[in-house]
Batch of 3 targets.
Target 1
Amino acid sequence: MIQVRAGDPVKLRFDFVVDGSTVSVSNPRCDLFDPYRNKIGTLALATQNSHYVALVTAGQTVGTYYCVGYGLYQGRTLYAASQQSFEVVATAVPIELVTVEETYDYLGCERYEDLHLIRTLIVACSRAIEAYLHTSFLPSTRTIRGCLENERVLKLPDYPIVEITSLQVDESEVSDYTLDAQAGIIRFDEPQYGDYEITYTYGFTSVPPEVRLACLKLIATLYNLRAKEGYSSVRLLSLAETFSESKLNVFVEIKSLIEHLRCRVL
């Protein structure tokens, strides 16, 4: 039994056995059933290393799925249960800048290889890039307060800005201003004096293409390093989590892709 998330690719293997020996069947297929025993699909089986295999996509329903293979042998139907069942589990949705499918395509490897490691690297590298950029890829709302002293310009601590919901100075709403959303800069038409309160939403509403590419490059770098002597999976994830502090040359190109998007901490 393996645990996967909805939409994950899962490789299932089947052997058809007669009198203790594996045999070949014609028109091999398999039926996939959800946790409520409803048939949700039929797939053709392929041969691989003397086994029959099927690559299925985990469904959206949480629970244990099972698959039954069947084929014709000497005029009768043989059945075989998959050698591996899988359970779709409900998890908190982490920040993921790229999909599993995109990652497999970029790495050029089979869809079912190292799925757990791929998933882990996607989340770790996404978090590392988000931390390096000092922003959010899941738009967040924040309220800040402070004091203005005849100022025309106010720099917000977070950006890019999606929307300013409210901007008050001494409890009066102010609307005469312009906003540089990408830089998080408010420019007032007239100098402002007094205590302010601003409620705004910040973050990216979609992932910029250079960020997606940077995430894929970081994943590929760490994935390929796994075979190097001394690089355990723990070490790889440690490198990803400390991406913002790393001085390794391998990350120079990755950082150059996204440096212009980095939110400078005030």
Note: DSSP finds five helices and 16 strands in the chain.
Target 2
Amino acid sequence: MLKWMTVIGLLGLVAIGAAPERAAAQSPSVVEACAQIVDTPLGKHVIGSIGRLLLLRSELGVTAEQREQIRGIVAGHRPKMVEVAQGMLKQWRALGDAVLAEKIDEKAIRAAAAEFGETLGDAAVVRAKLFREARGVLSNEQIGAVKEFRTEQLKSVETMLKEVAARK
């Protein structure tokens, strides 16, 4: 858990340009680009999401026993998770290729998007199965905190989209 939190914290620091040694080593254009990204609705959403995720991890208070049980659940689904992730990558590439083709072929784009949608559905089913099993490990309070986190994430996305729509 500490390793995961450290990685997220470091990513957050780099994203906001708060790592002075790294910033000094970068060319000014890279530092300026990072600062510009952070000052966008998407950048604010990403930084806020990292903060909310760290807060959630802290508030959940997962015990060592719960952590081991959840690791077992994830390990049991890992082969399917890898399979679905590989399919998502394949379909994402196919969709990207269709979008970037020299000649616009709306049917090909829609077909690739539909296939990608099917793969997203597969991923959602795996996620639902994982969460269903994890429910048996987590307390009602922990499940409530996860649901509250999801609600906050959705509100953050809505806020980001409103900010993007308001920009000229």
Note: Residues 1-24 have pLDDT under 50 and may be disordered.
Target 3
Amino acid sequence: MHSVEAITAELLELARCDRNPLIGIAGNVRLGILRFHQGRLAVAQDSLSRALDLYDETGGDLPNLAITSSPDVAAAAYLANTLAHLGYPDRAMVHAERSVKRARPLGKASLAYSMALSTSARACQTIGDDVRCCGYVEPLLAAASEQGFPQYLALGQCLLGWLTARQGDIAAGLETLSEAVAMLTSLGGQREAAYVNGLMADVLVWAGRQSEAAGILDETLLRSAATGVVAFDAGLRSRKAAVLATGSDAEIAAAECEFRCAIDIARNQSARLFELQACNALARLWLKQDRTSEARALLEPVLDWFTEGRTLPDLREAHEILAACKQ
């Protein structure tokens, strides 16, 4: 991470001195991606938006240098994920579609095409749009397999496994996901580990293997603390809390503590979507304890903040919880 910071800072300083738009675009794309993974979402949004603005100002007439191959594709793809975390699902999908649209003319043999599909699919999964996610995963698997891009093939299979399990075939989904995670690990895909392990924890819970899910979540949180890749920590904490809150040996107090931790992390990162997810889960826990006034007080201000994606699952769930609070 430190070497990436140094390279990014050097690029931005060079761009300031040289005023070369290509270098400025490269520096802002790198900075945006780095800050996204660090959970510094406001900076990521600013940097990636700046990269796209600079690119548009050039009319796209730039040489394809090693420091910034297809910069508009990368910037749009990561901006989609950033906006998803920030709680702007409609805008996230605009940029996801822009990324794939711009990458498509480059052809299936382009790494940028697989990257655009993979990153856009992740944005769809984050906001709960399974149909769009599947729509990106299918061409991703075809392109990555055909062109020999093992990392993107593995990431696509991770999402395919999760989707398969979510649709009811848990055994097949878990098998696909496990094989894909093993492939990613062999390739050294550490930056994607937190996101992928969150998917694995979901599927293990659906398979009734809560203790294994908890172990993966604890290990992943320790790794994120060590590496600074904390963009998914709020979601990981929420998953851990959900595991603690289920079963005959449920640890309700510990679960509530984890949910509160997830909410704090999400608020510190301005990750409104993860904040809503954690608040939904904690409010449901409180409903079971007849703590309806606390559940409403927690959930209403978070839900009121959202202006986009009213039909998405997390927002529908929040409305259902609030309706239950009024009964």
Note: Residues 232-327 form a domain with the Serine Threonine Protein Phosphatase 5, Tetratricopeptide repeat fold (CATH 1.25.40).
